## 1
Amino acid sequence: MMRADIDPEILKRELLEYHRRNCFKDANELLEFIEAYWKLRIPRARVCPEHPPPAEYIVDSFFEEVQDSVCWANRGGGKTLLGALATWLDTVFKKDCATKILGGSLEQSKKMYQHLTGGGDD
């Protein structure tokens, strides 16, 4: 069997450019892109009936089903990471979108910046 050595960074860049040209047809395609590009699997299932899963926040934010939202989770529950992801998606895929970070503290702002630039620790 013949194996082609393909640079994963080239594949990643091509995946990004494909979606910049074509966007995403639905929530599933968006979440699959996030998993492939960021290696981040965002929970889709509800654990409690009254609590939406994290994927719902990302999808609703990206497709602008909501204009404002509040993320309420335990400390270390991924709120800053998901906020950075939602911000990155808007900045990369939406025309004329810019990013400014305003965290609850300087430490949180730095953490979000690290997530946005690929240096996060979550």
Note: The mean pLDDT is 88.
## 2
Amino acid sequence: MGQAQEVVLGGVHIPERRKHPRYMCALPVEIRQPGVSFPSQGQTTDISLGGCYISSRFNMAIGATVDLKIWVGDVGIKTRATIRTFDPGVGNGMEFSGMSEADQQVLSDYLAKLELAPATEEKSIKDLLIF
């Protein structure tokens, strides 16, 4: 196996703790919080098989659990998520749990398309959502 991945933050090398590679993408998300009767809306800034970062006006406390519906094309994948990071006025980092095998496969297939797509300015995220 290769060397462990590192993140450089403020000139300090920090070992990467994530289990899955992240992919930058903007997917619409519905966020359901316990005790709130309506979902809040957000958008992913990056996603992996293990979690995502959601840009949203509605920040949630670290450790809170929410239910997500992430739209991959016309498919809404559902998962529970635990808030792992909190950036006031920006968003939250979330770790997935309890995603069905079918939804995991939809997400995995989508991430495979992201990985294979050439990084060009001409390529739109909509191009990646066609199944």
Note: Residues 121-131 have pLDDT under 50 and may be disordered.
## 3
Amino acid sequence: MRTRKAIVIEPRDENRLLAALERGLETGDFVDLRTRAFMYLLWDGALRPGLAVALNIEDIVKDAAATRIHVLEEAALRPSEATQYRPRPFLISPRARDAIADYLKVARSDGWLTNPKRLEGPLWISTHHHGTQQRMSQRTAMQAWHTFQQSVSGVSQEYQLDDVVVTARVEFMRRVKGSRAAEILAEHAGISSKWAGHYSDHLSDTSSTARDVARDVISQVGQKKRKQG
């Protein structure tokens, strides 16, 4: 699938795409709910698609053996080459947590989990070989996003997965507004402050820790749209 340099999604297009994602909850379809949850997680700005795809359910739930699905506010990537072999914490917005819980409920009730009594194994499940819980590939995630966008009318162009991440990070820095914006985004997204600085030049001072400010910002993701709905 052809790729280009990531861009910021036009605000009008972003509103249409987010509204269309909510229809996944109405349909109750497994793929619709998976797309909704995966895209909301990317819209938090903490993870690039490759890291998101690699998540396991036990990485993001409080208790793998619990009947109630409790998605963590602060989860952690497992140590890997991508995280320099250290666990890397990241925050999940209320919107993304709710969407992941909705998706996992259907994954468990409809037999997509290998063991429905344990919330573990690949988080994003391929639709091939029902019940074997094979991990969805990044290419499949890209294709699902492409297919989803074809169903959304009025969007000016097709966007890539990385466009969602870039858009989320720019919005994150816009909300932070300050001299420490790059530092706080770097903490949130697990990137260098120098690289984070490419997303915005907003400046101001704050006495809070980078993690505290990141937590405050990510807790607000989706709140405005939820109140308007």
Note: Residues 163-228 form one domain.
## 4
Amino acid sequence: MGSGRGPLEHSKPRPWGPDDEKVWLTMNSTTVSAELVLRLVVPDRATVPLLAGLSYTSADPYAIRMAFHVGNDEPVEWIFARELLTVGIVRRVGDGDVQVWPARSDGERTLNISLTSPFGQALFEVPLAPLTEFLHRTYEIVPAGRESSFMDLDAELSNMLWSS
């Protein structure tokens, strides 16, 4: 299992990456999740390490949830389009509140994620290798272009129309 690519039935968290920056990846036939250390870029361009949890499920095949662990408070969760993160690996993409683009930080390939809300703006540097591994696993579960076949559109419409 040295390459990190195994059958879809992974159930135990597995470390991925160098010893100083472990990434925990768990996976089964319908979900994949990972914890990785990213860097929050502060105003003087210094960075602060921050733990983030990523999760993906075939029940919501277009979305990746990213929970930022900030202190002792509940994690702050953002939902990203899987395609946005995938395209952001090769070129700048996104409008408005969320923008992503490839970059280098201290010689390491990263993905920059810029988030804007009424409460402020944040810029994160995400190590590209573990993020790419996570995204690859999501495409093993739900191949690109097949997302709609994993959704129950009738249930989604019913939920939107009748929930209040």
Note: The chain has a mean pLDDT of 81.
